[in-house]
Amino acid sequence: MAPLDLAFMGTPGFAVPTLESLVDAGHVIRRVYTQPPRPAGRGQQPRPSPVQQAAERLGLPVAHPETLKSEEELARFRNLGIDAAVVVAYGLILPQPYLEVPKLGCLNIHASLLPRWRGAAPIQRAILAGDAETGISIMRMEPGLDTGPVVLAEPVPIGHRITAGDLHDQLAQLGARLILEALDGLDGGTLHARPQGKEGVTYAPKLEKAEGFVDWSADAPAIDRQLRALTPWPGCFFSHGEERLKLLAAQPIPLPEGPKAAPGTILDREATIACGSGALRLARVQRPGRKPVSGEEFLRGARLAPGDRIG
């Protein structure tokens, strides 16, 4: 594969494996674009994005413009003389003039099998929906939201117990590999972008913290998917009395036929909680200001017993 001149545009940790992969493959990164440092941590001091930290470690030039709408910024982009731009969760919309600059286009690594789960949270929405698989799509960008033609895609099964954090890491590595194949194929003329199908379009809106509230009247498998989809962020929580507790891990438990306990009822000393159907056994719980504990330890510490209700 002949080295290409590239711009890289990305911000979170998901984008870092791709940047490293491009450098390792010998491509020339003319400039790395990322979001400006944001306040973080207890002291709320400005912290560079994971991509900026990786770029500086690799000795690459970094830019973090607040906007791409100025003529001056567009001129800087044009002057890079790049063959392609690789975009991974950058955080800014690329105006149309940017999309027209590189001869191979602006290529986006998207964490779903387009057209399913266009938008901001495709990994989490796929798990929430109970999808059997997801994947990576390499898409040539156009002005619409993840509507561009697909150059390359590869599916990944969604494991029965996988969390969004685990799937995130798996897909980040896959994207880092597929982008090399896509660039090689586009440059050599062996790959061509194909329009997305019009059937099966779904959208993956940004996650909200309120989505982490556990409603015990829901089915146990649905709560299980909720927990796995929202781990590590924003996390799931439930209430007991005045406390808001974090649910860090749990396991669905089938229940025998017979009278059903009210949702939220503690069924045994192993912290099995009745749901709308089935039950969920609490594995890791964290009370405010305390360390995470097992479900059994939580019951003892909160002085809860079978027959009591939470939530």
Helices, strands, pairings?
Layout: E1 5-10, H1 16-24, E2 28-33, E3 38-40, E4 45-47, H2 50-57, E5 62-63, H3 71-78, E6 84-88, H4 96-99, E7 106-110, E8 118-119, H5 122-128, E9 133-140, E10 150-157, H6 164-188, E11 203-204, H7 220-229, E12 236-240, E13 243-253, E14 272-274, E15 279-286, E16 293-294, H8 295-302
Q: What is the H/E order?
A: EHEEEHEHEHEEHEEHEHEEEEEH
Q: Approximately how much helix is present in the residues?
A: 25-40%
Note the gap between the termini: 58 Å
Summed up, the helix count is: 8
> What characteristic shape results from the CA principal axes?
elongated
Portion of residues in beta strands equals 25-35%
Structure class: alpha/beta
| Uncertain residue ranges | none
Mean pLDDT: 96
- Tell me the major beta sheet: 7 strands, mixed
What's the total count of β strands? 16
Strands in their spatial order, largest beta sheet: 5-2-1-6-7-9-10
